[in-house]
Design goal:
heterotrimer; A alpha+beta; B mainly alpha; C alpha+beta; B: mainly alpha; 2 domains; globular; C: alpha+beta; Dna Ligase, domain 1; five-stranded mixed sheet; 14 helices; 23 strands; 24% strand
Amino acid sequence: MRLTVQHESIYRYDKPVRGVVQSHRLTPARFDGQQVETWEVRVSGGQQGGEFRDGAGDWVQGWTIPGPISKITVTVSGTIQTSDLAGVLRGHRELVAPAVYLRDTLPTVPDIALSDLAASASGADGLALAHALAAAVGEAIAYRPGVTHAHTTAAEALALGEGVCQDHAHALIACARLRGMPARYVSGYLHSDSDGQGHEAAHAWAEVHVEGLGWVGFDPANRCCPDERYIRLGSGLDARDAAPIRGIARGNGAEHLDVMVAVVAQQQ
Amino acid sequence: MLSRTADNLYWLARYMERAETAARFLEVGGRIALLPNVGQGNRNEWDALLLAAGTADAFKRRYGDAVQRNLESHLFFDHDNPFSVANCITRARENGRIVRTALTTQVWDALNTSFQELRALERLPRSELTLTRLTDWTMRATALVRGAIDATQLRNDGYDFLNIGYHLERADNTARLLDVKYYVLLPRIDLVGSGLDNYQWTTLLRALSVHRAFHWAYGGEVTAAKIAHFLTLNRQCPRALISCIEGANHHLDRLARGYGRSTPAQGAVRSLLAELAETNTELIFDEGLHEFLTRFIRDVSTLGMRIGDSYLSGDQR
Amino acid sequence: MSKFFNEMFQSDAVRPPYARLEDWVATMPTELRSLKQAEAEELFRRIGITFAVYGEGGDPDRLIPFDMFPRVFSALEWHRLERGIKQRARALNAFLADVYGRAEIIKAGRIPGHLVWRNDAFEKAVVGITPPKGVYSHIVGIDLVRTGPDDFFVLEDNCRTPSGVSYMLENREIMMRMFPELFHRNRIEPVENYPALLRRTLASVAPAKCDREPCVVILTPGHFNSAYYEHSFLADLMGVELVEGQDLFVEGEFVWMRTTEGPRRVDVIYRRVDDAYLDPLCFRPDSMLGVPGLMDIYRAGGVSICSAPGAGVADDKAVYTYVPDMVRFYLGEEPILKNVPTWQCARPDELKYVQENLGELVVKEVHGSGGYGMLVGPMATKEQIAAFRAKITADPDNYIAQPTLALSTVPTFVDQGVAPRHVDLRPYCLVGERIELVPGGLTRVALTEGSLVVNSSQGGGVKDTWVLAE
């Protein structure tokens, strides 16, 4: 599939701030399932800092926006070729050992309900088990926007029985780690067909490390594995660690964020 | 030099000067209280002092009546009063501690000793502490630090920031002290030039430790015009507004030369100095001394902000 | 006859390094001694006054008791120690470069992966990033104890920001002021160039993007930190700025310092701030001590951070066990310095041994420091041992055990005259373009008779440490 992405984040501050620092993972890294044709990240009034590929294989860019400033626009535009690898992250260059992703962070700390959920799944091998875990999470947490927030933990979302892609991903990560499988959070974009379920184009899912196969993506929210509709941006231990944009403003203006994302399939 | 270091030095100096002024306020107040009641009584004069120190509201909330003991508590001991001697000495010492290596041993020793002595004073029963003891101690402590700075600090940019702090605070404080006298102690025009008024003027000069200097400089009758001239425009008087602004100008000039560039702070101090140099007491009285002083206090505060933006915040490019 | 090795007296003969001290003590009148002791304390206050916080409620952390009797090494003894320390410092750095790179030592099965990957000190964010000159730990503090003429053991490694070097410098300063004649009679290697060497070491690891004399700074958590004294002491002696997080900011590809002359580029940050607080954008988001965006600049090669974030994974007490293997694996050499045999309570068989022999062992927390949370079996009461046994059973992974070492003693001034007291040693090895070790270190002494705990928080003091010139 050939997808074009138009992604705009507008940060507004009610009082001008003295300066803003951001760290971006907004440029897709190359692997067998995705090849960038053109890609550009722009930041209004921003000065680009260092850029590098980190140990997890993600492309990181630092930006500074000198103040005083009350509005910042981050624009991502690009075209990318994708293909369906049934979720397998083949040909991705990375150095971080999978075992590092056995560590829990605050949003993925398991409770009894998560442990029960993890124990309920079974599979003949690692891959089957991962599929079973993803299915169990999809069953246990219904997709419903608005009930959870950015800091909701996996345990809280499971207790609610509802949540969004971030909650599904956290819950699957917690369950996989409970079963001794390294797991991580992935942020990216999703192209929804005209008959799509209305998921936002900015999306998140999880990857589970399967012995002998490597990292495999699972999207419990959509009950599938990432295919050619998915664009992978970056990964981390949890949503914060994998965030496409992390930023800090110096000053005490309250921040308001508007995001617009469009992922469109091109005629081939 | 780190902006934060410069900021600490600048405030160290401002707090030491402010401690001295607080003690002077106490002294003026104490002496005025010895006078017979004028108008609404001497409570009114204390109110004026508190007004000038900018702490009248806080005082009322906390103590209510302006009786001497409360005033001593407020102006000397009260750590919640930003203007009190105790608070100023503590803050000065804290600023000094952070930039310990930018100070000579002598300066730190003087500063730290003041702080330790202050704590000892705070532990004494109040019955043993006369107003004179408190004010004398403060004058001595602040003079020791000032002397150690002058005698031992390297003449680098740090020395300039210390001196800028001293001069700005002193300019502000002299203007405020003068304003107390003019603004409140002259409720009725017919009192000007009377014996009582003379006594009050003299008290003010005494509090500024310049009453003998005044007589040397002018001789004869004490008049409002002479005092106003002495404290605003006479370069011989170390506390005159013009002396303070000249001092600030001198040290800002040194910074500009040393750093090889000027900032808005130099512009601000120069225009303030030019205005003082060109005015005279007649013009000041035409404008109204109170109006003139209010404007001056505001200008000094603006100058302080320019200095902050240009050197101390580290935000300037 | 004591079972402890006395570094001065052996079978009533004086060992050669101490030869010229016998007279000194013997001829020192008691009054002079107490006079000198008072003078030393006064000097400490005076020098300490320069930096320390005194009169702030209790008393200064600075005034750790100072013992005037020096601890002495011969040139030969030191030579061997030096080789061992440098070897260990190289191996530790090679290990760090490896685990943040291809992790060959784990692939080769020489160290279990989980000790590294699941270690809290392991920083995922720096995997694949090679710091300048490949150095991760620039100041390696290696804690050593001695049990015999040629027997030195490493107690632990400190790869992050080992503290205490200000004592080494001050102790020497005090001794030279008080007993100049001792320095005429003994040829003692100087330590006072340590700050200059440290500065040179830090400058040598400036990033490749730095095309001028590198700007080095020390980053402190602030003046309320208990080690602020040492931070400002070092900054002053090195002639570099002592900065807090708020003094630094990132812009473009670099880190800048806020000065009265405008922004000034910073090339090397000697940080005395923990990893977690370095950059709220990368680590703890609530940190007020760090510099937002610092890690991105670091990872893109715009600034050097010493020690490198993540260096702590090499000085973990569980990883410690494998340092001799590191020496063999990376350097192809036999380790010159020995490790103390260590039982991992995480391993069931070793846990069993530990539980059965608590009375003879020293038990430590894996991540503990400062002598806290530690059991010294032979000195402990039955109740203390029972309490500790319960703690270990509850969380075995958190504990290691070692035999109680017969720490050497050095003569020490006590009320009754001079008596042997147990000591350890922390030398400071500098790793940059070159590896340097000043001849000396911090000798800590357990002032209580019979005590084996040298930590200042538990009645320990310090001594000047001499290395004699050949």
